[in-house]
Amino acid sequence: MRGIQSIIIGTAAAAVLALAGCAGSPSGGAGPASTPTTSAADVVGTWGDAADSSAPSLSLTEDGGLTGTDGCNRLTGTWELDDDGIEFGDLASTRMFCEGVDTWLSAADRATIEGDVMTVFGDDDTELGTLERTSDTPATEPAGGASDGGASGAAAAFIGTWGTADATQPHLVIAADGRVTGSDGCNSMGGRWELDDDGTLEFDEMVMTLMACPGGDQTLNRLDSATVDGDTLTVLDDHGAVLATLPRTA
């Protein structure tokens, strides 16, 4: 009897192991299904109705730039791919109050993309809302009044990087598509620019982060306009006073 019991127990154990092995392997012997990876092509474009300033929208460019609106305030910042979709960085906004407007998009921390729908999450992984893709092309405004969206003539003299790209030092990056980004040496900033009739560059819709940096010179955050002379950019406030002179570095 003891020998028979041993045979029965051994046979049952082998059967259990065989069943466990079958349950743990997908049919056909294939390994675990791979998770689809979000690519830059899935991200770049316009999400939401950028023509309606009272509705939330985002415009994401190939170089990792971001502009948009939460339906009240202008937004600017950066984005990058991560394992689950995209992560937003240095998101800054103006600070206007719009009664009755849900400004949920200003709290965006990351997003996932499935087809033509972007789902936006806050920093606590709470779902904030969704945006539908409305164009594969980022919504941009012509720079300096150039009809082809590129800078020409006098505007071209302003295009480039001014000052060091070190985030702890004042600098500006003026792009041909009408965007400007930079730092006052403490806070990141971004917005739009256009060329005035007198050849002066005017900054518009500027937004910035609100970090405190005791002892730092943050005068550049009062920028209103700029002039250029060769490889020197002179930044002025709204009274025409000089805030900074920045050398061209790129």
TrEMBL record:
Biased composition, class Low complexity, residue ranges: 49-64
Keywords in alphabetical order: Signal
* Region (Disordered) location: 48-67, 124-151
**Record domain DUF306: where:** 51-127, 166-244
Coiled-coil ranges per UniProt? none
Show which residues constitute the signal peptide. 1-20
Q: Which domain of life is it from?
A: Bacteria
A Pfam match: META
> Which protein is depicted?
META domain-containing protein
